[in-house]
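Ligand-bound model needed. pyridoxal-5'-phosphate.
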Amino acid sequence: MIPSVLPTYNRADLTFESGEGSWMIEADGRRFLDLGAGIAVNVLGHANPVLVEALTAQANKLWHVSNLYNITQQQALADKLVGASFADTVFFTNSGTECCELAVKMARKYWHDKGQPNRVEIIGFHGAFHGRSSAGIAAAGGEKLTKGFGPLLPGFAHVDWEDLKALEASITENTAAVIVEPVQGEGGIRPMEDADLKALREICDEAGILLIMDEVQCGVGRTGKLFAHEWAGVTPDIMMVAKGIGGGFPLGAVLATEDAASGMVAGTHGSTYGGNPLACAVGGAVMDVVAEDAFLAEVNRKAGLLRQKLEGLVAAHPDVFESVRGSGLMLGLKCAKPACTDVVAAGYDNEVITVPAADNVVRLLPPLNISDDEISEAVDRLEKAATQVASKV
Ligand SMILES: *Cc1c(COP(=O)(O)O)cnc(C)c1O
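Prediction:
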């Protein structure tokens, strides 16, 4: 008999009842160190007092109004995002995959309105993840995401990760845009080299096509810059942001330049919930903390500390781990012989939460405000998990 919850997830047998900062408390009382943060969502940890205050203050005033009216919290958050980024304008969604839907629509409408309606094709990279909607799975293209869901939304092409020669060769007079995650998340924590991201921007400029960046996982301070592309010193035309931006409240945003967004006039797009007062009150509070230089400096310092400790862990367990990779507090442990899922499961036994990714990688995406002591404790627990896994290979 089918469970009452549609069984699309292989769930671990863990039931968390509360959270405090970097900790999650299981129904049986065990305290888990959370290096998953709900997959890069809880950027300020669990039950952060600043976010609880922003949420409850807004909840007592007004939860939801339609986008048929002015929403001051939405306006304030849009102004913050525009002020802190390349973007001139923002549309709010409730999730990452909805950002993909709009990014695709925006790119196609751009060319339609420029009198080149043939330009509909969007080129992405193998190993990508852009969400589970029809545009999201077509944009990513991987068989794991698309099999059985055809006919897929047409107009997508794919090249190997960082194969810029292949990318250049696949640009035609029908190309509208390129879509890239500056750091692939689900694909196994694969950062694109800064030089390659720069070259990608140049290729798009030369061809006169749009560059869409999917920063749903790597954005909002995760890599130690507010947005990951800042490391390479280049900017996109359209950017997808979600996960961390709501700190746990469902919120996403598409940021764009005035030119890229020029086709999206009144009536061309919408969302019932997108950018409602409750979501934007929380998003505003997240931005106020995360966009501060001092906060990002701390993310970078902690990232260095965690990475150094993980290098030690890899060196001590070459039978379990091959290498550490990633950027900032978006780190991956590439597993040697054992399956990453076995390492994640051993983590559960030792009360530390990590997340599996493709390419046999264990993902570490802790709250950005994790403390030094918690980093040490987390790596101690990972050490125990590694020892446990090693004893079984
Ligand atoms: C999670 C993710 C998405 C999809 O976000 P949802 O909120 O699950 O729809 C899209 N792109 C990237 C890079 C992601 O990590």
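The longest strand covers residues 321-327.
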